[in-house]
Design goal:
Helices cover 27% and strands 33% of the residues. By secondary structure, the chain is of the alpha+beta class.
Length: 114
């Protein structure tokens, strides 16, 4: 389960950011996970919760925004998204499409307590 190592990396990054800004209390971590990032959001949330139990990050919410697969057609330039793997452009029907989004795994923001 690689979600455990991803959760640990998120915790490590967030802890460094909190320390560099002198922040002590955290409310939430907001991340974006692409459909092709090979991450199971529920497992990642579970692992994050396990890792942060009995730490200063206990109870922090991990908000996960799933990013749809994004494509661009090489023929007509159409940009489109899909929840599933696409093989044809919905505008021109060609199969010359490139994946442009959906592989990301990014910490988008960190919410601190007032």
């Amino acid at each position: 389960m690689h979600e455990m190592s991803i959760a640990q990396s998120i915790v490590d990054i967030v802890e460094k950011e909190l320390a560099s800004h002198g922040v002590e209390q955290l409310k939430a971590v907001n991340i974006a996970v692409g459909k092709w990032a090979a991450v199971v959001p529920e497992q990642l949330a579970f692992c994050f919760s396990m890792i942060t139990t009995d730490t200063n990050m206990a109870g922090v919410t991990l908000n996960i925004r799933e990013v749809l697969l994004g494509y661009t057609c090489s023929i007509c330039g159409e940009e489109f998204t899909s929840g599933e793997m696409a093989i044809v452009c919905p505008k021109c029907g060609d199969t010359s499409i490139a994946l442009t989004a959906g592989r990301e795994l990014t910490i988008e923001s960190i919410e601190v307590a007032d």
